[in-house]
Amino acid sequence: AKRAVTKTWEPKCGEDGPKGLVFDDKANHLLVVCPTSIEVLDVAKDGAQLSKLDVGDGLDAVGWIPGKRLVFAAAARAEKMVVASLPASGTLSEVSTISTAKGAHDAVASADGTVFVADGPAGRILMMPAKK
Asked: Which are the contacts of 131, defined by CB distance < 8 A and separation ≥ 6?
């Protein structure tokens, strides 16, 4: 079978985005990482926007733990990471905000909720242990 573009969706990221994508296969939602926010699109409804969460300037990739339904978004220029809940309804909501460092971005998370954030300007990795 040959692959081809059949549709084009237009998230509201502006001309500098999107920066990253995460697919929630259980809910059939696509998370679109914009430069300052995350949008949740409904794949079954031709990419209709279900929610949007403002995070801060400097997003480019987010961590996702499907089993906990948590999103981890580090904003490099805002110097913070937002932890958000993403229920099957597709409505993102902020759970907490953690201060990071200028330039820290690209959050990744382990299944237990431990989060790692790249702090490129300082040449280090920030680690935030899982909440017990």
From this structure: 113
The kind and range of the H/E element at 97 are strand 93-99
45: three-class secondary structure by DSSP: helix
pLDDT digits (tens, 9 = 90+) for 50-86: 999 999 999 989 999 999 999 999 999 999 999 999 9
What pLDDT digit, counting tens, does each position of 29-38 carry? 999 999 999 9
Residues 6+ apart with CB under 8 A from 26: 66, 88
Q: With beta carbons less than 8 A apart as the criterion, state whether 42 and 52 touch.
A: no
Backbone dihedral angles phi then psi of residue 128, each to the nearest 5 degrees: -120, 110
CB-count exposure of residue 93 (10 Å: 0-12, 13-18, 19+): exposed
Q: Tell if the pTM clears 0.90, that is, is over it.
A: yes
Q: Which two tokens stand for residue 14?
A: 């502006």
